[in-house]
Amino acid sequence: MQRIGVFVCWCGSNIAGTVDVVAVAEALKKEPGVVFSANYQYMCSQAGQDLIKQAVKEHNLTGIVVCSCSPRMHEATFRKTAAAAGLNPYMVEIANIREQCSWVHKEMPIGTEKAIILGKAAIAKVNLNVPLTPGESPVTKRALVIGGGIAGIQTALDIADAGFEVDIVEKKPTIGGKMAQLDKTFPTLDCAACILTPKMVDVAQNEKIRIFSYSEVTEVKGFVGNFDVKIKKKARYVKEELCTGCGACTEKCPMKKVPNDFNLNMDTKRAIYIPFAQAVPKVATIDPDYCNMLKNGKCGVCSKVCTAGAIDYTQKDEFIEEKYGAIVVATGFNPISMDKFDEFAYNQSKDVITSLEFERLTNAAGPTAGKLLRPSDGKHPEKIVFVQCVGSRCDACNEKGKEYCSKICCMYTAKHAMLTRDKYPDTDVTVFYIDVRTPGKNFDEFYRRAVEEYGVHYIKGMVGKVSPEGDKLMVQASDLLDNKQLKIEADLVVLAAAIEPDKSARPLATMLTASMDTNDFFTEAHPKLRPVESPTAGVFLSGACQGPKDIPETVAQAGAAASKVIGLLAKDKLTGNPCVAHSNELMCNGCSSCERVCPYGAITYEDKEFRMPDRTTQIRRIAVVNPAVCQGCGCCTVACPSGAMDLKGFASEQIMAEVDAICK
Amino acid sequence: MQVKEYKPLIVAFCCNWCSYAGADLAGNNRLNYPADVKIIRVPCSCRVNPMFVLRAFQRGADGVILCGCHPGDCHYTSGNYYTRRRMALLFSMLDYLGIERERTRVEWVSAAEGAKFAATMNDFAEKVAALGENKRLEDLRCKK
Amino acid sequence: MSNSKKYLREEIIRISGVNPKKCMRCGKCSATCPAYDEMEYHPHQFVYMVENGNIEPLLESESLYRCLTCFACVERCPRSVEPAKLVEAVRLAAVRKQGNNRMTANDVPELIDDETPQQLIVSAFRKYTK
């Protein structure tokens, strides 16, 4: 039996004005378990708290009920008071007789009656309270960043800057991501490589950062502070530690017809390649699909020209297991496939390209060395048509596109149009738009400059059809403001393709038990207040894997994610919320109902040996809740068909006791 | 014998993050609702086991209302969706148990909707009062 | 919007099963329409005018019969609005509005000959009879 003390607060006249506090204290004294009852003007004041502490000592109290304001206000205060008096802080319950009684009722008898009932309910609950201790778990002081684009790079640099070790896992042979493929960046027109490659070098030179390039995460186990991650280092058939990145092999390899994915297959590379000059790590990689030596054992030119002896045709995939305290997802985006958009003739004509391809065409390191030439015949295009919103803002029933606005297209199209007019003033540039969305710092000014200073034609309307006619492209579009249908001859059509999350995100989300929306973007823990955290503790989001983002936003989010990671890794131990679910292993039948409803993936199963009455042993599958991951929502407790699952602090018995007390 | 004025007994389960805070806000704004409503705090509306609802009716409650965060706003991301489904199932069986369907309700109240909380409670209390005492479960009622 | 306009709009929406509110005014329907130059009101205008209940001018317009019902607009519309179905619904409304009986049951016997399929006469009777 508990020894409960009841403390009724007047809150000046806030409570005492409508509730007869003396009568409440008297009435509650008669409740089972109550050995002491008092009332005081301000229970939360130092004097009030001292009254509680004194009563705990004098009456050997094991539980406390405070009839006062909302627990959202002073529960923490009174828990501290209890702890100071040597009680377990979770032996305190609050009866909310201010916000939910005295302030909403006007008549003294009614208020008093309700206050007594609320007090009884709290007493009934405390009678069943048990001391709770928050679980503690250690923190591995190392972070994993998945994805080596600008988001991953910035996050890793910020975490490393705070003195923690970071590993970057990048599936491509080099870090840099999409930003490395860009030419200029809006709205300031900085050269992307000029601002990105120094950061890539910083990453390479930072002692705290390890790069696993050409690698993928294959398995994630564990929980916040204690993730066990398996990383597959794909065989690149080149010893990373020996390769000097001299590039001799990439010039001598006889296999010349390998599509160059870095240039979006607009030109070719060799079977052994370094994606681009500033690649980090600057190490050659052999493409096993094209290398003659790997395919049929004939060739070996690269190993002959390699003075460092780095070529190793027998290299195998390697698996690395590492422990991490926090994981940052920075898997980024890709433009959607244009295969389904037959009306734009993307697959029929080489001169219909996506904006990312246009980016490579204007890049000094691109397939045309920065000269804007038509992919089909290498001629200078005199008339360029840009089409916006290709695949963005589609209806949910439209299986070709995406429902969301891809956010970055308006600005990069303005940039492309402006740069084209700047470099080639003889080129006529037309942009077909539905809306021009430029809500960013200096964004609208930038777009207006494209129109007013650079003479880019913006036409409100969508392109309906692009058809190749001779060496030209016939563009049929509507001009909504002029209410006309236009037929324009163009040399080059650039499609602002919608962007979608990288394909690797979905299996990764499953591994991390991190939730995703219907578009495969990672969802954040709270859309406004916790935008860089996943609902899964210890998993953070950086960049376009969470939603379409431009570079400044990505960098801002990367820094925010890093600061959250640093906050986590700075702790030596994680103190959990003790009000978590736990399963009674004698009642659990391992049905997985709880696992399925848990939004945090906090429930796992293990086979446990049980000693039976007849001295045999039986192995049963039982649910185990990880208290470090459980957030205490209690959803599993209701899903459990056998009643094995319960929530500490809000146990079924306790809530039933409250119901009983109220209904008595 | 003294005839007591009929007062319905209403149990309200409120989730800690939205509805309980909404109820607190109703208090802060001094918005009246009947004292017949007694609130039980739960971490999330999905913590409410249908058993709790039945228990309340068994012990003589005249109405039971569940309040949670608005769909999509659940502090635990998806708890209120489970609540909605579970309660839809439970409520559909209440008639069979001898409890009028109108004695139960699920309502979404955010932490900013003190006025909605009070209005909801006023409306619900009125509806339950109109139904009268919950006699139909009397046989099952535990008599202590 | 007047009640009669509202009624007509609801009628068109009901017949067509199209929700014109889904339109985001991109004009891709008009961009893709092969009969565009023949029309006074273009596909995107159809959607906009129906949404605003401005249907009377459509009923009077020749544009109604210039639409080839080729469904190019339906195919290309990113918002799945299906303008061609709206045009067809307005056409139906125009037919129903005729009011006077263009064809009576008595007219049918003399129309029957070896050349005309009977199906045609039946559907004509349905269409032109109130």
Average pLDDT of chain A, to the nearest integer? 94
Count of individual beta strands of chain A: 34
Q: CATH class of the largest domain in chain C, please?
A: Mainly Alpha
Biggest interface between chains: A-B, 45 and 43 residues
Query: Strand-and-helix sequence of chain C, N→C?
Result: HHHHHHHHH
Number of strands of chain C: 0
Per the principal axes of the C-alpha atoms, what is the gross shape of chain A?
Answer: elongated
- Give the CATH topology of the domain at 333-500 in chain A: FAD/NAD(P)-binding domain
Class inferred from helices and paired strands of chain C: mainly alpha
The name of the CATH architecture of the domain at 333-500 in chain A is 3-Layer(bba) Sandwich
CATH topology type of the largest domain in chain C? Fumarate Reductase Iron-sulfur Protein, Chain B, domain 2
Give a quick precis of the structure.
Chain A is of the alpha/beta class and 664 residues long. Chain A is built from 18 helices and 34 strands. Among the domains of chain A are: 4-127, Rossmann fold, CATH 3.40.50; 235-315, 2-Layer Sandwich (Alpha-Beta Plaits), CATH 3.30.70.20; 333-500, FAD/NAD(P)-binding domain (3-Layer(bba) Sandwich), CATH 3.50.50; 581-648, Alpha-Beta Plaits (2-Layer Sandwich), CATH 3.30.70.3270.
Structure report:
The complex is a heterotrimer of chains A (664), B (144) and C (130). Chain A has 664 residues and is α/β, with parallel strands linked by helices. Helices cover 28% and strands 25% of the residues of chain A. Among the domains of chain A are: 4-127, 3-Layer(aba) Sandwich (Rossmann fold), CATH 3.40.50; 235-315, Alpha-Beta Plaits, CATH 3.30.70.20; 333-500, FAD/NAD(P)-binding domain (3-Layer(bba) Sandwich), CATH 3.50.50.60; 581-648, 2-Layer Sandwich (Alpha-Beta Plaits). Chain A has a 5-stranded parallel sheet. In chain A, helix 1 packs parallel to helix 5 (108-127). By secondary structure, chain B is an alpha/beta fold. Chain B is 39% helix and 16% strand. In chain B, helix 1 (19-28) packs across helix 4 (114-131). The longest helix of chain B is centred in the middle third of the chain and has 19 residues, at 79-97. Chain C has 130 residues and is mainly alpha-helical. Chain C has 2 domains: 3-97, Fumarate Reductase Iron-sulfur Protein, Chain B, domain 2 (Orthogonal Bundle), CATH 1.10.1060; 101-130, no CATH class. Helix content of chain C is 55%, strand content 0%. The mean pLDDT of chain C is 86. Chains in contact: A-B, A-C. Chains A and B meet through helix 4, helix 5, helix 17 and helix 18 of A and helix 1, strand 2, helix 2 and helix 3 of B.
